[in-house]
Amino acid sequence: MTHPPAAQHHIELQAGSLQTGHFLLLPDGERSAEIQSVLVENDDFGTPAVVLATLTGGGILRIAAGSAVHVAGPAAGATGADSGEAGSPAETTSEESDAGTPLQLVEPAAVAPAAAGPAAVGPAAVGEGSAAAAPAVVVPPRPATTPAAAAAAGPSEEELALIPEPAGTPESVVEAAAAAHPDAVGVMLLSDRLAKGINTKSGSCLKDLSDLANELFVMLKDADGALAVADLLNVLPFDGNPGRWTSVEAALALSSYICRQTGQDARAEVYEKLLRAPDAMETDPFKARINARVRQRSLNEPNLYDKEIFRAIDNSNPDAEREWRLLRLEALMFLRAHGGSETIGLKELERRIGNELESVRA
Q: Are 119 and 37 in contact (CB under 8 A)?
């Protein structure tokens, strides 16, 4: 149901703080609508990108995650409820705000009695017989697994010792991998770039290391060489940069799969715990719950590039097909490192990964 907004002072919040029951002032600045549910969608780097607020009257409001929203005082909620004006569902569908555009939010509040004056709504009037004027306090539920509990599940020092120290400098590890495959053009191109110096703060450098590890295992079936290169990335902690973490994530997923295939289950579990480590870093209970929900949705509905692969096959473009299949293989290994999902089990993942390996190696 929509209501006309009321003029109030506002407190600025992040768009990700929107909750069920809030009355959101729509972008036209003339109507408000109650939020029925909230969902946060991440971009391809795992960063919250869009907040999807489903409205009670119908329609979904798309809000850029970086947008500022404003929470109004309880009087605004009461004014809106008193008006009793309902808007048409068609008027609230597919409203969209630009990134950085401030939205206004009216907190849900109990409606004051008609006989009560403005003073009865203020904090000083809240007491015996005036509890109806107090704003509703919305406490977000805690996530099923708290950040502290998730952090405690990280690898111990003994488990981290299962990851061997590199044999020499990172550059020497890359040189050794390249020397083992002197005729592999892909390996030589990557190793030449990395030979100039490996900078773990450089996203392109981390991407080259991840690509080299995948090239060694996927195309050359060199599991030992791939693990040696991947371990240069696997020991790097999450630094808050999703772009750099994507390469580390791919290396951890690849290492987990290799170790599972070679019977090194204990070592594989270490890689899997490291892969999930960023999930424990959110300390806000509400955001942790939203992140867990979005993460599970991404696991249940992964992008496996079906359309792109079929398009490449229809266009008789084997190079493009191979590139898309490599991305699919990376996504399947990521799911495998997470233990599968609610829609794709471990046995099915093993089968699909085997099929993709055969396809790209052919």
A: no
